[in-house]
Known about the structure:
The structure is a homodimer. By secondary structure, chain A is mostly helical. Helix content of chain A is about 55%, strand content about 0%. Chains A and B meet through helix 6, helix 7, helix 8, helix 9 and helix 10 of A and helix 6, helix 7, helix 8, helix 9 and helix 10 of B. The first copy, chain A, binds a DNA duplex through loops.
Amino acid sequence: MTDTAATDQVFRPRLSRERIVHEALRVVDDEGLQALSMRRLGSLLGVEAMSLYRYVDGREDLLEAMVEHLTDGLRLAPHTPVGTEDGWQAYLQWLAHEVRRVAHAHPQVFPLIATRHPAAPWLRPPLRSLDVVEDFLSVLTRQGFGDEAAAAAYRAFSSFLIGHLLLEASQLGGSVVPDEALDEGDPNAPSSALELADYPTIRRLEPELSQDRSGEEFESALEELLDRIARTRRS
Amino acid sequence: MTDTAATDQVFRPRLSRERIVHEALRVVDDEGLQALSMRRLGSLLGVEAMSLYRYVDGREDLLEAMVEHLTDGLRLAPHTPVGTEDGWQAYLQWLAHEVRRVAHAHPQVFPLIATRHPAAPWLRPPLRSLDVVEDFLSVLTRQGFGDEAAAAAYRAFSSFLIGHLLLEASQLGGSVVPDEALDEGDPNAPSSALELADYPTIRRLEPELSQDRSGEEFESALEELLDRIARTRRS
DNA sequence: ACCTGAACACCGTTCAAGT
DNA sequence: ACCTGAACACCGTTCAAGT
Lengths: 235, 235
């Protein structure tokens, strides 16, 4: 046996909150939320589970930190010149696609982003970072939105993102089931082994239902939402 | 001590899948998802946890059964005369409000409805019962929608419901935290103890953000969605 | 200062055994 | 047929103890 095999402690740079959160995200991305336990996370970091409690205030705090790490990343790419008349539209387009990118990059974490309670009741997932919300509201109000219209736009925008992205993420993150029960595949059966005999319309529309139009539908629904928001602006 | 106190077995009608699901819903409604364990559920039903496995194929199957119990309830109140020209609009209005009623009645279960993987990849929460989807698609196609338009309407409608109701439910179900840390309330501090010094726009808009407009916003966004869907119909 | 060992109070689940 | 006891392999978390 070699040295590294004997010690099995490949040299870990030293624990830190950042390293813990990063490793936790890796676990959930690769194996799903139920694979994340304090004990397993500890052992992956070459440490006993109890050591994590120096940096993280329990499992709930860890989940919170993971969500914050992803939602704080939505800040300030030097996004768009807010000077122009329609700068807010470019900003919201950019922000929507940023959130979508996060949802696609971490489909197993997005349900957490969508369902955990933010720090204040008026914060709404997935735009639950104060920095991001400040950006959002200040861009809109500086471009002629009234206070009430800006707040309403924030609520509508959040709902839009959750509605479209949670389902997309759910479909992306779904097939991480450990490949059991894929054994005896009925050589017929249209994609799923569901019995559709009593559901004629579903059976007829199954091809249309199975089509993935999420990209186009996201874009067109987003444009419609921006139009709708534009109408509420009092300039 | 009396007889009932001595036995503590108040007479339980006998176990059944239905009774288990019903009690599980009661637990989650009252105390939240994390309060639901097989062992505790068993003891609430006057039985050892292992007995539950006769009726339920493990915890995951139980959660699934809870979701199905609620989403199958969306079926066929003798809803609306589908004969008329705009019958589909009345049907979708009815269906949207039914789902909203479920979300309000079980805010702690709704995240489960929204995030669990349905039986087929083309099924989307919260309309994940085959009966309901068959209703949905057959009503629309019988009223002049093309197959593709009906499928697109199903997807848009599902996204709308998730986006609006998950946030509403989250706010309703949130305050079930066991009333700790409510102790030393800063007599000032506007509703939340968040530090908003560096967020001038948020601070200025906090009253508008804190307003609960979910009712009105649900209604007006729903009407807008129905208008949008109407435009996709090829009659 | 940072990590660990041992312990506590829980979990979900299986399976042979009871009635 | 229906329920249980005992056991297994896990959890999260605390706390005194080690270095």
